From TrEMBL:
Matches recorded under Pfam families: FKBP_C
Listed EC numbers: 5.2.1.8
Keyword Nuclease in annotation: no
The name this protein goes by in its record: Peptidyl-prolyl cis-trans isomerase
Molecular function as annotated in GO: peptidyl-prolyl cis-trans isomerase activity
PPIase FKBP-type domain: residues covered: 86-174
Signal peptide: 1-20
Keywords noted in UniProt: Isomerase, Rotamase, Signal
Length: 178
């Protein structure tokens, strides 16, 4: 009789130990030294003034980012149609720090993803809004405050509290009904 209960008891104990070992521990400290949006905006405003680009950008409260509103920060492109959430888009982008350091660069494949899917892939929300402002062949630069991107988290080439400049060139766009 004892053998009947011993095996299930061992199995339950092993499962509990296995699951407990997979749980997060509090050994890593939480990111608590991030900048507020107000602090980020002060840094970005100073950068834009110093670099003579203040007239090229405008802050958008809805997206929480600065958008290019005039050349060279905005080149509208050809045509009248901008991508919608369901549009399949292809674009080239570069990500820089305010000091010009290149952090990332890539070109997406035409028709591989809907615009709305990029937010789910880790892109800051401002990316979605930026691409809806240009037509095929156009480009736009946006500056995303650290508080609306990666905050005080770091990456391989990404220092904590980094304000990021994304530059996008829309290479292709197709409606979701093709």
């Amino acid at each position: 009789m004892k053998k009947k209960f011993l095996m299930p008891l061992i199995a339950v104990a092993a499962t509990v130990v296995t699951l407990a070992s997979c749980m997060k521990t509090n050994q890593s400290t939480a990111c608590t030294n991030g900048l507020t949006l107000t602090q980020d905006r002060a840094v970005i405003d100073a950068f834009l003034q110093t670099s003579g680009q203040a007239s090229q950008y405008q802050f958008d409260d809805q997206a929480g980012a600065y958008y290019g509103v005039s050349s060279p920060a905005l080149i509208p492109g050809a045509g009248a149609n901008t991508p919608s959430a369901d549009s399949f888009v292809a674009f080239h982008f570069e990500t820089h720090l305010l000091d010009g350091t290149l952090i990332d660069s890539a070109t997406t494949q035409s028709g591989s993803h809907k615009l709305s899917e990029y937010a789910a892939q880790g892109y800051p929300l401002g990316v979605y809004y930026a691409l809806t402002k240009i037509t095929n062949g156009g480009s736009i630069s946006i500056i995303i405050p650290s508080s609306n991107a990666y905050g005080c988290n770091t990456g391989t080439n990404l220092p904590a509290n980094s304000q990021l400049i994304y530059t996008f060139q829309l290479k292709g766009m197709a409606s979701s009904s093709f």
